[in-house]
Amino acid sequence: MELHTIDIIIICVYLVCTILIGFWVSKRASKDLDSYFLGGKTLPWYILGVSNASGQFDITGTMWLVYLCFVYGLKSVWIPWVWPTFNQIFLMVYVGMWLRRSNVLTGAEWIQTRFGRGTGANLAHISVVLFALINVIGMIAYAFKGIGKFAQILLPWSLNQNTYALIILTVTTLYVVKGGMYSVVLTEVLQFAIMTIASITVGIIAIHHVSPEMIEAVVPPGWQDLSFGWKLGLNWSGAFDMVQSSITADGFSLFTVIMMLMLFKGILASMAGPSPNYDMQRVLATRSPREASLMSGTVNVVLYFPRYMLIAGLTILALGPLRETLQGMWTTAAQAGNSPDFEQILPVVIQSAIIPVGLTGLLLAGLLAAFMSTFAATVNAGPAYIVNDIYKRFINPTASNKVQVRMSYLTTILVVAVGIVFGFLTETITEVTLWIVGGLYGGYVAANVLKWHWWRFNGFGFFWGMIIGTIGALVVPPIVEHFWPGTNTLYAFPAIFLFSAIGCVLGTLLTKPEDDEILKSFYKTVRPWGFWKPIADKVKAEDPGFEIKTDCARHWFNVVVGMIWQVTLVALPIYIVIQNSRGIVSTLVVLIVTTIILKKSWFDRLPSDKS
Q: Of the candidates 325, 317, 315, which has an alpha carbon nearest to the alpha carbon of residue 355?
């Protein structure tokens, strides 16, 4: 792509600024591990919320979401539940507070607060570290594939996808290594500001260039509806036959079945708490349990409107003025015997003449910012497990702060290198996305739900559940694909979850319970709800003044209302861009009602900062 000099200057200035920020804060970040990985737990919740939102505004995910919006229309609002996106609601309502009360550095270190320091706890600790590293490496591969595909089309030099990805990952790693959490958060705030301006502008351009009548003429019936039946009900046959083939390949035709699987998996995954990545790190970096909840709430408020203005804007431009260009490109690919690459809708739209000079540079800088935010947050989270949970605990417990931070530099580079290797081996964004959310997280869920909600669950049960689940995530999806080619990886989730749950229960019941003192301390500190009556009775017997008030019913009510609230935040900008007045009005009404309910039932009843 030929870029104007102004656009190149904007991109270069942005890249230089991010690197300078990393070096500027490096002295403050290098005091100790707490400063390097959690910013010393001094950063305000709203800054961390914007940072977390920026980390989730990734380019790879945005390319995937543009493809989903193009193919599935308003029904694409539901598909990100596969992650699940509504885990932020669970964190906002209660899980974030539970996690923050532990006052630890990593998810593996949290294990000590639940299982102590015995053999079972050590095994559980190791299993979390193993999962965290596999997860981080998978996310780096996911980022690698997306940024390479994006850069090859949009940047002006004749390099292949992997070379572009290697260069950009190297630049990002440089400022992460130097600045740690301070660098990540400060650059993410800058990146989010750039991305928000660019996103809203693209949405406005799309509204200007594409009328509702133009959209109605090219999309199939049902494309503008949130509702769905047993089957998806979208028929692209005709001008976009290849799109219909993509729906079949995605495995989303039986949409109600997929939704049931996503909801089942998503609720369990959300109850388990955040996986050991940047999302968990932002929760642990807050100053109090109250701020942990507010931080997660901020993510929902600031992320979805600008992101979906961009997604909807790019989609509508692709359906309108660029429809023939895309159709010709996909037809040519099909005639050459290749599968059309629908994930390239985003870069094709950006390189068109519709996006003016200056805005192209800002948008490219913003999308690079989105990539760098997610990648930086992921990279900063992963090495904490190696340094804090392996090196510091088992190899060199007396290591000075200076040595620990230097080890953090080294392990960051090592983790990135391994992730890049797996990125070279990955074929598509969808492939790695569905493996992470449908396979890997299937092995995480059972053990991490039980650790919060069942007093009898112990370290051995956690270890066997995580190990069997992780092995299942590596083995079951290929087996499913072998016997049922083209099957959505999400269908493997129930089997992986079942194997993991069996490992959890047998590992627990065949070994001794954890010490009562550990369980009582955990219950008094975290105050979870679930199957804790034997421990709650012991705590009450020792301390009659202890108030057992878990608010389970209110939490579930707020979760349901919050999920509806979040859907409106996603759907509203799409309705605005496609200029669907009925959708705008109905979505706004639901948004206002759910906001009022959450104000009274959630915000007004948050604990004080000292709770």
A: 317
Q: Region of 307 please: left (phi>0), alpha (psi -120 to 50) or beta.
A: alpha
Task: Determine phi and psi for 340, rounding to 5 degrees.
Answer: -60, 135
Q: Taking residues 87-110, what's their average pLDDT? A: 84
Task: Give the separation between CA 130 and CA 118, rounded to whole angstroms.
Answer: 19
535 close to 524: Cβ distance less than 8 angstroms: no
- Give how many domains the chain has, as a whole number: 1
Please enumerate in sequence order all residues whose Cβ is within 8 A of that of 208, keeping only pairs 6 or more positions apart, or say none: none
* Cα 140 from Cα 132, distance rounded (Å): 12
Q: Would you call 608 helix, strand, or coil by DSSP?
A: coil
CA distance 35 to 17: 22
Residues paired with 454 in a beta bridge: 531
Helix (H/G/I), strand (E/B), else coil: 205: helix
Which amino acid is present at 388?
A: N
CA distance 106 to 211: 50
Structural domain contains residue 72: yes
Domain residues for 230?
5-113+126-378
Which tokens hold the place of 385? 């497990």
Question: What tens digit of pLDDT does each residue of 291-330 get?
Answer: 999 999 999 888 899 999 999 999 999 888 888 888 787 7
Determine, yes or no, domain membership for 391.
no
163-195 pLDDT, tens digit each: 888 888 877 776 566 545 555 666 677 778 888
Residue 600 lies in a domain: no
Alpha-carbon separation of residue 36 from 48, 247, 272, 472 (angstroms): 15, 44, 26, 34
For residue 215, is it within any domain?
yes
Helix, strand, or coil here: 580?
coil
